[in-house]
Amino acid sequence: MNYIILAWLFSLVYAESSPRLKFTVEEPTRFHFVKPEHYMTLYLQEGGDVLYVGGQSMIYMLTFTDKGVKDTQIPVPADENAKEACLSESQSQTECDNFITVMQKVSDTFVVCGTNAGTPKCWQLVNDTVLTDVANEQMTPSDISSPFPSQRSVSLSTDGSLYSALSAAGSQPGSIRRTFGSRKLLKTENKWLHNPQFVGAAMIPGSRKHKEEIYFFFSEFNKTAVVDEEPYRARIGRVCMVDEGGVKNMLADSWTTFLKARVMCGMGNIPRQYNNLRQAFALTAQERRMGIIYGLFSNAWDTTVVCAYSIEDIDKAFSTSKLKGYSNSLTGHRPGTCVLKNVTSSLNTKTLAVIKDHPEIEDVVRPVGEAPLSLPTDDHFTQTAADTVLAVNDEHYSVLYLGTEKGKVLKILHTIEEAFIISQYTLFHSEGPITAMAIDSQGGHLYVSQATEIQRLPLADCSRYGDTCRECVLSRDPYCGWDPAKKKCTPIPAGYNISTGAIFQSLDQSNTSVCGEATALKVHSTSPKEVVVDSDGPVLLPCPVRSYHATYGWEKDNCIKRYPCSITGGSCVLAPTPDLPLKEGVFRCMSLENGYKEEVVSYRLVFNGGPLPSSFASTLAPSLLLAAATLWLM
Ligand SMILES: *[C@@H]1O[C@H](CO)[C@@H](O)[C@H](O)[C@H]1NC(C)=O
Ligand SMILES: *[C@@H]1O[C@H](CO)[C@@H](O)[C@H](O)[C@H]1NC(C)=O
Ligand SMILES: *[C@@H]1O[C@H](CO)[C@@H](O)[C@H](O)[C@H]1NC(C)=O
Ligand SMILES: *[C@@H]1O[C@H](CO)[C@@H](O)[C@H](O)[C@H]1NC(C)=O
Ligand SMILES: *[C@@H]1O[C@H](CO)[C@@H](O)[C@H](O)[C@H]1NC(C)=O
Question: Cα–Cα–Cα angle for 584, 588, 593, nearest 5°?
């Protein structure tokens, strides 16, 4: 037997929590800002093609098509007086301009607010072209927009009302308010919030209309905390949409349903917790119990992690926990539950007094799985967005998108068991942080921005996964499945019928058995390209790495000899060793994933007697050489 049995010399690129696939997007559906926009507010209407971007003294109306982006720019300058006053006071000078902080459609009014150089101002955008004053004189711009862009404000429009949360800064304590619309305008009491920094808000549907709530996500910062004490506390605060305020002498213009809870993100009870909530995204469904909230947290070392919370758990905490500092029994109406105002027990002054002095529940909210999601620790996350997808098995799956400090976007399938990173997108030419993301589930797009550029990505980006059933199914992307009739990896059509449809997916684990035997691979599936080389010159045979969860290796002459390969960039390059010098013959690059071996490329190596015309290459650096080889061979 002249078989040389070597151990599998497969090169391992696999890491437990690394992205399986890496894509670089070059398509032109992007818009470049003339000047960098360091603070951005995005607004989009589900299912549309227009994205409104609020920037510095400018609203950009961007119409996306597959061919490119059409833009209309509406200047919104700061008042000259306000700007002068701002510049003369020694504020951060760069913030003395009109930064658009709020863009919301409230019933038929498109409300736009900006910082207006320290004295916030609001307009309404009419016919997508003209900014006019808002007719309703009730509106107080300083309750809706912060005076400076670095002080975050959060806004949410639902059911004809605008809800606004302002972060604390300087002497401003921060607040949660209803600021515009048909319902009574309400606010938080100052003592309910300790230096809040808001990061998000969401409407949470209820089992019945009057049970609807607004959740606010924020961190509280304790200015007087001692050095080795954690100054941040992550919070969820909530109010009922039916809240109409208290009685004449008690909480007359304040919420009567406000309650807040501490949110933990870390392993069990160990002290290493992530307390600074930086971003939040709520995924809600018609049935609220299916809802999930993703929070992006950081710790004192600025390491970022993501924790997921079930809305059911949060509900349970709010409806059963003791109130902090209150030990008497709660008789009658429980603080924080949503009831219509005509239910008199909700408004007796005794209950209101309890509400006024006890805004916090004692129970803390813990993440699903009692730990942060398992994600690459060297990525610093800056943005989150998420979507629920109805898969072909009629189950809903959560897909999470994370933007990083280096301009990448991770697409993650999140199930109860794990966080599987479907892919990593490189969308921008520079490495700057992702500054904003907006998701349009209905229209099937994700909008992603850096300071200088914004672009959109299809949620069902199925054509990137390759043209075999196996590749499509291994992607574990709930938006995509293998259509055996069309022999294509396709988006799941709207209204897909589980009993009549025939699209293959395998989401809970990578199982390609759905693809059946017919698609099982032939042993040699590629035809070797001939490569003529100098017998003692360098040879670099590249093999494109598609899956970073696979292992790669080279085989020669029908598996008799196995050569290792070394990963360089997106390629696994044949690396002969002194023990295994190159010989003429057929070299096949094989990938191994999920116990399944597949041929990626093959070459027939033929030695040339004389020097190669391209032998100059031997004097080049290996990376250049590889690039040259790749161009030459691919
Ligand atoms: C908006 O468009 C309508 C109908 O075209 C027109 O009547 C109205 O004057 C426009 N409003 C403004 C402020 O331009
Ligand atoms: C802030 O920290 C100080 C020092 O530990 C503590 O006395 C105070 O109660 C804290 N404030 C809040 C609101 O937690
Ligand atoms: C309260 O008002 C709602 C409608 O506003 C009505 O449906 C309900 O019956 C009333 N409840 C009581 C106890 O009067
Ligand atoms: C799916 O197709 C079956 C068979 O044609 C039909 O009976 C069923 O109503 C369909 N289901 C849905 C949700 O359309
Ligand atoms: C894959 O799915 C098939 C059919 O559903 C099943 O028989 C098989 O055990 C699964 N394989 C793995 C590794 O789970």
Answer: 155
Look up tokens 């008199």; give the residue. 344
Residues 154 and 168: beta-carbon distance below 8 Å:
no
Number of domains in the chain: 4
Which ligand places an atom closest to the C-alpha of 360? 2
Taking residues 66-79, what's their average pLDDT?
Answer: 94
Range list of H helices, 188-305: none
Pocket of ligand 4 (CB under 6 A): 497, 499-500
Measure the CA–CA gap between 580 and 553, rounded to whole angstroms: 14
Query: Span 92-107, mean pLDDT?
Result: 94
pLDDT, mean of residues 587-605: 86
Query: How many percent of the chain have pLDDT more than 70?
Result: 89
Q: Model pTM?
A: 0.89
Q: Is 95 part of any domain? A: yes
Identify the residue whose tokens are 């949409």: 241
Same domain assignment for residues 265 and 402:
no
Phi-psi region of 17 (alpha: psi -120 to 50; beta: other; left: phi over 0): alpha
pLDDT of res. 534: 77
Q: What is the pLDDT of residue 400?
A: 97
Q: Phi and psi of 469, rounded to 5°?
A: -60, -45
Query: Is position 27 within any domain?
Result: no
Has residue 189 been placed in a domain? yes
Amino acid at the residue 79: D
201 and 349, same domain (yes or no): yes
Give the integer Cα–Cα distance in Å for 332 and 334: 6
Do 279 and 361 fall into the same domain?
yes
> Do 578 and 522 form a contact (C-beta atoms < 8 A)?
no
Q: Is the CB of 340 under 6 A from ligand 3?
A: yes
CA distance 129 to 208: 38
Which atom of ligand 2 is the closest one to the Cα of 229?
A: 5
Mean pLDDT of the chain: 87
Full domain range(s) for residue 75: 33-147
Separation between Cα atoms, residue 306 and residue 397, nearest integer Å: 17
Q: Rounded distance, CA 248 to CA 39, Å?
A: 41
Give the span between the Cα atoms of 630 and 634, in whole angstroms. 6
**Closest ligand to 341 CA?**
3
Separation CA 9–CA 228 (nearest Å): 50
Stretch 102-115: mean pLDDT: 96
Tens of pLDDT, residue by residue over 270-302, are 778 999 999 999 998 766 556 999 999 999 899
Rounded Cα distance, 293 and 199, in Å: 13
Q: Are residues 233 and 181 both part of a single domain?
A: yes
88 lies in the same domain as 233? no
Q: Whose CA is nearest to atom 7 of ligand 1?
A: 127
Q: Specify if 5 maps to a domain.
A: no
Task: Identify the nearest ligand to the CA of 132 by its number.
Answer: 1
Give yes or no: residues 321 and 248 share one domain: yes
The string of pLDDT tens digits covering residues 40-58 is 999 999 989 999 999 999 9
Question: How remote is the CA of residue 341 from the centroid of ligand 3, in Å?
Answer: 8
Question: Are 72 and 125 within one domain?
Answer: yes
